[in-house]
Amino acid sequence: MACRITELVIDAADPERLAAFWSEVLGYVELERDDDTIEIGPPDAGFGGPQPTLVLSRTSDPRRGKLPLHIDVNATDRDQEAELERLLALGARHVDIGQTGEEGWHTLADPEGNEFCLLRSRVRSLSEGAGD
Q: What is the CATH number of domain 69-132?
């Protein structure tokens, strides 16, 4: 028996804003909400599906230092440059962490400054069949 990741919890000053951003980035929908958290996930699977859900949890505690975990994303229906343009239009911004310019990825930050990377490879959408 093994475990798998079912949720990623992200502390947020503005869960509404981050939920909207990550829903657009990942094609997720709102699954559940209470006073201080919003859970988003795949529209056809929700919690427990093949992809983890994101739980945006309100906090007023400031983050101290670089997070030891970040999210990597890959485009499913366009090339990396077109996806980069889309992410920047949604509110992502470039982050300089000492890149050389030769990397195959772009380091970005979401609207609250959480770093994530857009990788070069295009991957199959989970809605595409294995034989496609």
A: 3.30.720
Q: Estimate to the nearest angstrom the gap between the alpha carbon of 109 and the chain centroid.
A: 10
Please determine, looking at this structure, whether the domain spanning 1-60 carries the CATH number 3.10.180.10: yes
Q: Are 67 and 10 in contact (CB under 8 A)?
A: no
**pTM score, two decimals?**
0.83
CA–CA dist 40, 104 (Å, integer): 28
Please tell me the distance from the alpha carbon of residue 21 to that of residue 51, in angstroms, as a whole number: 17
Locate the domains of the chain by residue range: 1-60, 69-132
Write out the chain's pLDDT in tens, 132 residues.
688 888 999 999 999 999 999 999 999 999 999 999 999 999 988 777 888 999 999 998 867 666 777 889 999 999 999 999 999 999 999 999 888 888 999 999 999 999 999 998 888 776 665 444
3-state secondary structure 74-129: CCCCCCHHHHHHHHHHHCCEECCCCCCCCCCCEEEECCCCCEEEECCCCCCCCCCC
Three-class secondary structure of residue 21 per DSSP: helix
